[in-house]
């Protein structure tokens, strides 16, 4: 049976849901559906789609709808976490300008005069005074061996006394200050050795003014390298082990310079080794610098006992 | 002044003195407890800028002590009192403190005198001003050592076993001094005296073999004891020792 006009989609949907004889369809629509194969196919297809949809609706959980709390709570919690603290500015430490540093260095150096035993000053002054008197009153020609013996000996003793770490008690406490023990130690060495060397130069100048005693540069050149080397070895031995070790090293150095090289045989294995070192300013300075650097390194280290 | 240590380690000739310390000190009085060799003095030396941390980080007042610059800056902010005060025995107390003021950066005699007078007054050291350090009693020697640490107005006071060797009267007096100082400066101290720690310290840290066994208020340390109150038993319990002391027999 042919039909000129098919039912609309709305009627097909109603028929799929409630049947082709559903009361909300008109009589004409019901009659058409009963006789039209095309529209019957449309109703059955619609019914199958509805069945599939209903089945899926029962199988799948309802879509998750994010709650207000779920959306907002994390944000609120995030706001509640304190912001990481900004890194605080370092506490400013007192600064020392160049002028103040210079005044401080001078004050620390002069202070060392009060921390060195007065006996050292007495011994040095007495030694050089006796030497000067001997040069003036006795016909000592040439003067170099005597100036060398006295000056090297006094410089060595001064190095021994000035470098003794035992002079600074509680070294650890003195490490935690602006001027470290190394600077104090250096200031003391500079003050003491500088003073003794200056006095040696003064006596050498006096001797140089005497007829036949030798020229001033030659006199200073005779004692300066062994004095430098002897003092440095004494300082190293004192700091490294003990004043006794320093005394031994200084004594050996003095003996080599004053006895072996001056009065010993001109050609011997000891002379061959010692002469370039104790007589040459460059070689003596190099070894002295090494010994003093080693001593300074030891002084700069605070106590290493575990605790 | 804030002190922050993270994973801090230090070794002496291969032996670990500190083995991964994490600490945060923020003012007040902070006490370091622990047996001999636990690492207390090493920590204080590190905090004072005397030693360089081998690994981990350590900052004092925002200064990184891994750098030479940081250590130099901290030495200007710290007053350090080691177990042995750094006093010249042949100088008087005043001469010693004047020398300390000089080494702390005061080249002018007048400013040094003012600084020394202030510390004398504060610690009641006036009567000992002209006494040679070698002739001081134990209590006066400790006060002179504290005076040495206080010269220059440090922002952080580091005291290594400050009450060791003091009689009870001097210990009580010393505690009062430190408590007064703590109102204006941060104090870090090490001690074997648990009652000192309980009375003085806002927080304590118990070190054991270079590691932190406990950090918190001293009262919390006592809670580790079987009865929850005895500080010494809490200390022993945390160190894993037998809580009971040696058995005493009557006779």
TrEMBL record, chain A:
Keywords, in A-Z order: Membrane, Transmembrane, Transmembrane helix
Membrane-spanning residues: 115-137, 143-162, 182-210, 222-240, 247-265, 277-300
Region spans: Disordered: 1-26
Biased composition annotated in UniProt, kind: Basic and acidic residues: 1-12
The name this protein goes by in its record: Zinc-finger domain-containing protein
Gene source species: Nocardiopsis coralli
From TrEMBL, chain B:
Listed SUPFAM superfamilies: P-loop containing nucleoside triphosphate hydrolases
Keyword annotations of the record: ATP-binding, Nucleotide-binding, Transport
Signal peptide: none
InterPro entries: AAA+_ATPase (IPR003593), ABC_transporter-like_ATP-bd (IPR003439), P-loop_NTPase (IPR027417)
GO MF annotation list: ATP binding
Domain of life, per lineage: Bacteria
Domain ABC transporter, residue spans: 3-234
Keyword Lyase belongs to the record: no
Database matches in Gene3D superfamilies: P-loop containing nucleotide triphosphate hydrolases (3.40.50.300)
Keyword Ribosomal protein attached: no
One Pfam match: ABC_tran
Family membership noted in the UniProt record: Belongs to the ABC transporter superfamily.
Protein name as catalogued: ABC transporter ATP-binding protein
Organism (species): Nocardiopsis coralli
């Amino acid at each position: 049976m042919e039909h000129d006009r098919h039912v609309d989609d709305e009627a097909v949907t109603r028929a799929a849901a409630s049947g082709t004889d559903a009361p909300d369809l008109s009589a004409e629509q019901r009659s058409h559906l009963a006789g039209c194969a095309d529209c019957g196919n449309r109703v059955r297809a619609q019914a199958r789609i509805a069945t599939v949809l209903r089945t899926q609706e029962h199988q799948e959980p309802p879509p998750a709808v994010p709650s207000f709390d779920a959306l907002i709570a994390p944000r609120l919690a995030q706001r509640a976490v304190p912001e990481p603290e900004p890194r605080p500015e370092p506490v400013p430490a007192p600064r020392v300008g160049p002028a103040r540093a210079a005044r401080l260095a001078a004050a620390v150096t002069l202070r060392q005069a009060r921390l060195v035993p007065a006996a050292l000053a007495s011994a040095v002054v007495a030694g050089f005074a006796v030497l000067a008197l001997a040069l003036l009153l006795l016909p000592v020609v040439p003067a170099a061996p005597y100036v060398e013996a006295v000056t090297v000996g006094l410089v060595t003793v001064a190095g021994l006394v000035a470098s003794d770490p035992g002079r600074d008690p509680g070294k650890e406490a003195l490490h935690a200050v602006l001027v470290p023990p190394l600077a104090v130690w250096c200031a003391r060495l500079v003050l003491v050795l500088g003073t003794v060397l200056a006095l040696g130069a003064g006596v050498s100048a006096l001797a140089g003014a005497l007829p036949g005693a030798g020229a001033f540069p030659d006199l200073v050149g005779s004692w300066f390298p062994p004095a430098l080397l002897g003092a440095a070895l004494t300082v190293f031995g004192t700091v490294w082990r003990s004043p006794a070790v320093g005394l031994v090293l200084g004594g050996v150095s003095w003996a080599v310079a004053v006895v072996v090289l001056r009065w010993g045989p001109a050609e011997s294995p000891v002379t061959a080794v010692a002469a370039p070192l104790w007589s040459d300013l460059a070689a003596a300075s190099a070894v002295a610098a090494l010994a003093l650097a080693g001593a300074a390194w030891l002084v700069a280290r605070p106590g290493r006992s575990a605790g | 002044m804030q002190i922050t240590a993270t994973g801090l380690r230090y070794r002496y000739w291969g032996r670990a003195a500190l083995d991964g310390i994490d600490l945060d000190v923020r003012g007040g009085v902070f006490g370091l407890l622990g047996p001999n060799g636990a690492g207390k003095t090493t920590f204080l030396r590190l905090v004072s800028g005397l030693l360089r941390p081998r690994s981990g980080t350590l900052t004092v007042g925002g200064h990184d002590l891994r750098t030479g610059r940081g250590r130099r800056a901290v030495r200007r902010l710290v007053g350090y009192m080691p177990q042995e005060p750094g006093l010249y025995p042949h100088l008087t107390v005043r001469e010693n403190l004047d020398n300390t003021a000089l080494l702390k950066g005061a080249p002018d005699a007048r400013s040094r005198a003012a600084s020394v007078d202030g510390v004398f007054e504060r610690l009641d050291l006036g009567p000992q001003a002209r006494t040679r350090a070698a002739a001081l009693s134990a209590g006066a020697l400790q006060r002179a050592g504290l005076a040495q640490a206080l010269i220059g107005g440090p922002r952080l006071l580091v005291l290594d076993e400050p009450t060791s060797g003091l009689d009870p009267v001097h210990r009580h007096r010393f505690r009062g001094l430190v408590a007064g100082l703590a109102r204006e400066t941060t104090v870090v101290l090490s001690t074997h005296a648990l009652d000192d720690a309980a009375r003085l310290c806002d927080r304590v840290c118990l070190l054991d073999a270079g590691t932190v066994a406990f950090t918190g208020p001293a009262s919390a340390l006592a809670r580790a004891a079987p009865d929850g109150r005895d500080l010494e038993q809490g200390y022993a319990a945390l160190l894993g020792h037998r809580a009971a002391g040696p058995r005493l027999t009557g006779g």
